[in-house]
Amino acid sequence: xxxxxxxxxxxxxxxxxxxxxxxxxxxxxxxxxxxxxxxxxxxxxxxxxxxxxxxxxxxxxxxxxxxxxxxxxxxxxxxxxxxxxxxxxxxxxxxxxxxxxxxxxxxxxxxxxxxxxxxxxxxxxxxxxxxxxxxxxxxxxxxxxxxxxxxxxxxxxxxxxxxxxxxxxxxxxxxxxxxxxxxxxxxxxxxxxxxxxxxxxxxxxxxxxxxxxxxxxxxxxxxxxxxxxxxxxxxxxxxxxxxxxxx
Length: 247
What we know:
By secondary structure, the chain is an alpha+beta fold. It has 2 domains: 3-24 and 214-246; 34-208, Sandwich (Chondroitinase Ac, Chain A, domain 3), CATH 2.60.220. It contains 2 helices and 14 strands. Strands 1, 5, 6, 7, 10, 11 and 14 form a 7-stranded antiparallel sheet that branches. It is globular and about 75 Å long. It starts with a helix and ends with a helix.
């Protein structure tokens, strides 16, 4: 094997490592509903602002899950009807607890206009979505799932402006922020351990953290690691080349 061939293979390895690293630290996945032929329609508001591009009524979501032994054995999605959905609520198996007499649970998600009390740390930029669940016959429902059994929410923001908004949900003491990740150009995700009102909030201070943008805390160390790898490979290639010439 010639020195030139070894160098080419080393540089191909460096390029492949860089590609894998870029995939690992990328802050977003490819959106399902974005792109040629499948663009997201303009955001639908319950109470459209003057800047709204449409006055269409936003859709709600509904799902009926079978219940056995006081829980839902199977998972299911509840999506609103826009293209793409403004909300997707995922209920994994064993997410809910109901009385033993229940045979099904109905989940509904209804869009509402923001109203008092409002978040103190930012502005609601989406509709407020109220998630409710009830067993057949009116039995009460508790969210008991944790880990892989915990429900999750995805919501589409009205635009892709960064820093992105974050999830917040309404509690008796006010709006509380939830850990938010950006999963597409304008789509955000959070775990939803409670029912009730949820919304995307654009924070007043970007220093408080948002739901999107480049994750420099992850990207910085990754770039540094790649630079070190390139330096090490360069030194090794030079030594190999020198050894080949001496030989």
